[in-house]
Write a structure and sequence with these properties.
728 residues; 32% strand
Length: 728
Amino acid sequence: MSITTTMATRRTVLMGTTAIGLSAVASGARTALAQASATGGQCWPDITAPAPPRIEHRIEQLGRVRDDPYSWMKFVPETGTRTLETVPPIVRDNLKAELAYADAVLAPLADRREHFFAAMMARRAQGSPPPLPHREWRYESEVPDGKQRPVHYRITPASKREMLVDENARADGHAYYRATAFQPSPDNRYYAWAEDIVGNDRHQIAILDTRTGRTRIVVPDDAYGYGGLVFGAQSRNLFWIKRDARNRPTQLLRVPAAGGTSELVYEEHDPAIFMQVSRTADDRFVVLDLSGPDTSEVRLIAAGAETEPPRIVAPRQEGLRYTVHGWDGGLVALTNADGATDNKLVALDLETLEPDRTLVPHVPGRLIETLLPFAGGLVMMERADGLQHVSILHADGARIAVPFDAPAYALTIAEGQDYESQSVRIVYETPAQPPLFFDVALADGARTLAGETRYTGYDPDDYLVERLEARASDGAMVPLTVLSRRDAPRDGSAPLLLYGYGAYGVSSDPVFSVPATAWVDAGGRYAIAHVRGGSEKGRGWFLDGRRFHKRNSMTDFIACALHLVRGRYAAAGRIAAFGLSAGGLLVAGAMNLMPDLWGAVVAKVPFVDMLNTMSDADHPLVPLFRPDWGDPLADPEAYDYIASISPYENVAQAAYPPLLTTAGLKDDRVSYWEPWKLVAEVRRQTTSGAPAVLSLDLEAGHQTSADLGAEYEQMALFWAFAERGISC
């Protein structure tokens, strides 16, 4: 695959931010950055950018008045999916102008895009994850040579390998294809998965009957694929979650695995509640999780009683969060009850479902975040001081730590493991080390290397991973992970790409990334800023970057950049900021606070029209995430705070660096008009001459089509753009 063959279908947006006072370190860099800004226009084609019309749109809200002159960009169809043909003429004509402008401005990057793309594609994975046992069967997947998508297999008890699903074949003929939630039924007869063939996150569900070899679409549309389907314990039924007209998961339904009509099991009427379905590891219950950022309610469907109404464990209560798991013949709950901010583990009475006794007490700053029960022990994943830790709890209360030793690493407990297994599969990786698959004995914690992923032409010993700490403006110590080539000089000359997310308590784990190694191999450094808003240092780390503390995430990101400058890992003006979705809010906010610091900014499907989006009660995610961002429709303090940090509202006259953002026309999570509005305003106000570009994917939603070519093509564009911006 060549970049040039598909360049016209991948578009990108540049955006910018406002300036306020610089710290002492950044002030010293102002001169160098001014020189870069002064010549910024010479680094890019001299092309007149589109100037979308500004049409006054007065909004009165809570006694405040604002003008949103680009509100006309927003289009939500009454039915169906957005396409370029169905949007209003003013939107269509201006988007076509953006597409043409993006092509023209990004055209000089073609050679470097080809270089990065070829480097990523050449680094092919050798081998596949070792099969996971499922009773006497084993399941595995791999991307065959010459293909871009996985093929899923199972190995029979007689050691015969059988193909289950070829994603390459399933994707054939579709402009967009992304599949998820692959799973066998407990009796190994059926194999189910969800697939999005439109790009709007509304899935169809397919089931393969391995006895007949027939694949049937049991749910044709509107299914929620991410944690939204599971077989019942007896393999007769598949439970699945349906999205409503606003793309919110609201109904749990049950459909016979052999095919038939879906029946409603439960319907949720609160738009602030999110829904997921799973099965306990011991196969005794189907679990319906109903949750918001600050509340939980679990409902259980017992094996053998799958047509009975779900039973509530504990009614939802604001401030109470919990999850329920089957273990050791009973039920356990991971909960924050009684002030256990970072969670404690309790056993539940099977009759009353009330807490019976504490199994693992709360330890402040040590977040218990994941459990996986086995007959021989309960595997726990914890997080403390920015690192993950694994331990095994036995039924008698004994606990075994499973140590991993590296400056920065990521651990994953593989899904779909057999409850009766004598070991747990743990995946270990670092930014330099591709995934290693360890089988850890539940009895004593002994580790056995079960497999590893190797990449063509790649040697982990050529790279150096460092864990640093940056001091934030309020004294908080922010973890930083840095990847370099081992022979890279530390003189500030290397271009540095700084990634961050910092929202919803999601930690930015230091995983292995082929695109990151391609950037480093080209002479750069790659760093991850573990800012507040994630959970790297416990739930308190999340709360300190949430709602009225959200600015901390942005100032943490800046502190990390300045720390890298002081340590001569990079120089001011030679740092590219990179974030996606809520990470786009992070990097755009950091640019608003200190535009002189950055050589380029890349924001993928960024959440940057914060005030208008959070004021849209019909948005599929707004009711759910009001606890995280605030409610500007009802709370004046929330309105004022959001207005003070929302990137679109805070664009001001300043010398913006080159800025690239992307959008998917079919995205309902962060819609295309968010980055488009920001780009338009940045173009209007920037004094640098650097471009602001919208790259619009007409076929995608919040995610690109799931194949390596599409992923690497987009990353190659990001890297080429960042490199050009830094070099100017």
